[in-house]
Amino acid sequence: MDTSNNQTVLVLNCGSSSLKFAIINPESGQQYLSGLAEALTLPEAQISWRFGDDGEKQKAALAAGADHTAALTFLEEQVLHGRHDLLDSLIAVGHRVVNGGEFYSEPVLVDDEVEKVIEKCIPLAPLHNPAHLLGIRAARRLFAALPHVLVFDTAFHQTMAPAAFRYALPDELYHQHGVRRYGMHGTSHYYVALKAAEQLGQPLEETNVITAHLGNGASVCAVKNGKSIDTSMGMTPLEGLMMGTRCGNVDPSIVFFMVDELGYTLEQVKDVLNKKSGLLGISGKTSDFRGITQGVEEGDEKAILAFDMFCYRLAKFIASYYVSLGRVDALVFTGGIGENSMMMRSRVLELLAPFGYIEDTKGNEAARFGNGGLITQAGSAKAFVIPTNEELVIAQGAARFA
Ligand code: ADP
Question: Is 153 a catalytic residue?
Fold first, then answer.
């Protein structure tokens, strides 16, 4: 792989015990390195990586209890050892940040003030933002010569109007405490909306699409004239669709019932709603959509119910965005489930038949394995599968500051 005269961005996505990394050319989208450090701060901390798209996957144990700094040090000193071409090609570091509140609607260059704002946003993303800060601080120390840029999951949704982002709660909860809907997966919704506009042959600024990002976390977005005007996730990623282990929309009184009548602690309720619900809760077996569709094929009743609920709730959300958008140019499926599950797409299109969707079975079949493509017949309302690329959007956001 010739990397001379190359300009690349190191993209980092830090979770509480994980650190995903990639080195990407922001113009061509070429990925030179991708990898993941897992079980950070635990005895079994480890790191795996691969050069290029088809390089051999390599793995190493990190020192027991290794943290984000240790993982990044390993990346710089071991993984990139002897790869001065790649190290020298770096022009910026792009950090994914889940929630930037109302402070950021664009990527921002990190300085100490910005770090303080991310700290201020911790109550809005208590699981994610502290982990992002660990990664940002470690990376700023290790890659001190490079500009560090934050790219927010929430930024794309900052164009939502109050009628879409407010909860019907007392005013002070919003004005004094920031309780509102922020939405997530913004980089993915933006990317596939842009690609859909390209496929439709029209400018993004004149394109209306409904984008469904369906992975372990899942959200739908109504994009009007290229801008997000509504989305299914809320103040946190718990609202909206049924997900791998998250419940999505439920009656909030269920929380009182669990606490008052069943004696759950709030910590237990949080655990149930975030980690034991969704596909896992209903199937009783798995949060993995492949396991669900396999269960459907084998006639497992719980898996069938989980599949039915996932598709029905998704189709209802999509239908509601016809109210938000008026005219819909296309529906887009993306994310691990959206890109790969022909069975799910087929069911959702069937449920959306009243809106003019007619599945093209061959197109739907052909969209597997990362190909994407149009999955509806000529004369039907249009639906596409478009593989997402959040890392590329982050790399491009960061490259602007190089
Ligand atoms: P994350 O939100 O963690 O980034 P992904 O976008 O990678 O998640 O999506 C993970 C989901 O995609 C899992 O539920 C997985 O089962 C599902 N998935 C991956 N491949 C397939 C497939 N071939 N058929 C159905 N579902 C799939």
Answer: yes
Q: What are 215-232's pLDDT values in tens digits?
A: 999 999 999 999 999 999
CA angle 242, 245, 250 (to 5 degrees): 45
Q: In this structure, is residue 399 part of a structural domain?
A: no
Residue 361 inside a domain? The answer is yes
Residues 140 and 265 in one domain: no
Of 88, 112, 153, 251, the active-site residue reads: 153
Q: Is the beta carbon of 294 within 6 A of some atom in ligand 1?
A: no
Q: With 0-12 CB in 10 A as exposed, 13-18 as middle and 19+ as buried, what is 30?
A: middle
Helix segments in 112-185, DSSP class H: 112-120, 129-142, 162-165, 171-175
Residues 323 and 385 in one domain: yes
Number of domains composing the chain: 2
Residues of the domain holding 207:
202-390
Which residue, 247, 285, 238, is CA-closest to 293? 285
Asked if 93 and 139 count as a contact pair (C-beta separation under 8 A), the reply is yes
Identify whether the C-beta of residue 71 lies closer than 8 Å to the C-beta of residue 37: yes
How many Å lie between the centroid of ligand 1 and the Cα of residue 341? 9
> Is 288 a pocket residue for ligand 1 (Cβ < 6 Å)?
yes
- Check the CA dihedral 237-385-301-303 and report its sign: negative
Cβ 321 vs Cβ 189: under 8 Å: no
CA of 340 to the centre of ligand 1 (A): 7
CA distance 393 to 384: 20
Residue 292 Cβ inside 6 Å of ligand 1? The answer reads: no
For residue 213, the ligand 1 atom closest to its alpha carbon is 6
The residue type found at 89 is S
- In angstroms, the CA 107 to CA 97 distance is 10
Return d(Cα 237, Cα 150) in angstroms, integer: 19
Compute, in angstroms, the gap from residue 370 CA to the centroid of ligand 1: 12
Beta strands across the sheet bearing 46-51: 58-61, 46-51, 31-38, 19-24, 8-14, 90-97, 148-152, 108-109
Name the domain boundary from 152, 181, 215: 152
pLDDT, one tens digit per residue, over 277-328 is 999 999 999 999 999 999 999 999 999 999 999 999 999 999 999 999 999 9
- Measured in Å, residue 9 CA sits from the centre of ligand 1 at 26
Q: Is the pTM of this model over 0.85?
A: yes
